[in-house]
Design brief:
Elements (H helix, E strand, L loop, with lengths): L1 H28 L6 E5 L8 E6 L2 E6 L2 E5 L5 E8 L8 E9 L16 E11 L4 E7 L7 E7 L3 E6 L4 E6 L4 E4 L7
Antiparallel strand pairs: 1-2, 2-3, 3-4, 5-6, 6-7, 7-8, 9-10, 10-11, 11-12
Length: about 180
Amino acid sequence: MDKRIQVIQQLVIGFVICVIFAVMLVGLFGSRTGQKTLTMDVDGDGCEEVVTKKLGTVTVRKDGDIIWKSDRKWKCDDFLVADIDRDGYNELMVLLWKQGSFGEHLPFWMEQDIEISQHIFIFSWDERQDRLVPIWMSSRLSPEIRDWNIEKECFIHILSTDGEDMLWMWKNWGLVRIDNTLVIK
């Protein structure tokens, strides 16, 4: 009887450790789960593509064929599609978690770049290359984003994990925070 109790106790402890590990992963990689699908014109041809987030991957399909897929090293939380730079064409904005902030070329003062952090990457259709290309890739976000959405077609409304309510827009070359008391009409 004592061995059975010990086995049961070990199983319960193992289960509790697995649950704790799963909760830590959700906290580490964000809490957005599930799927999301939008139909939007991403390549500027007047026809709508299907943009999907499933299992941490964002995919863009045209006529059923994959024309873009997020890097397998990223864990994508969400995406938005809008004309964020106001050039008449939609951009794909991806909220994601990834390791490192600098890619393969580190600043001279860093020996390694292994921290997992949240980022916003923005992609635009390049007609010459006939594909989505990155036009802006943020460094580590701080504070991190809890929720975001498009306001009035070209503003990003962001709620941080700290509860800060912010409004961002594209200006020149990148996203900039604008006064969150600004009234959009």
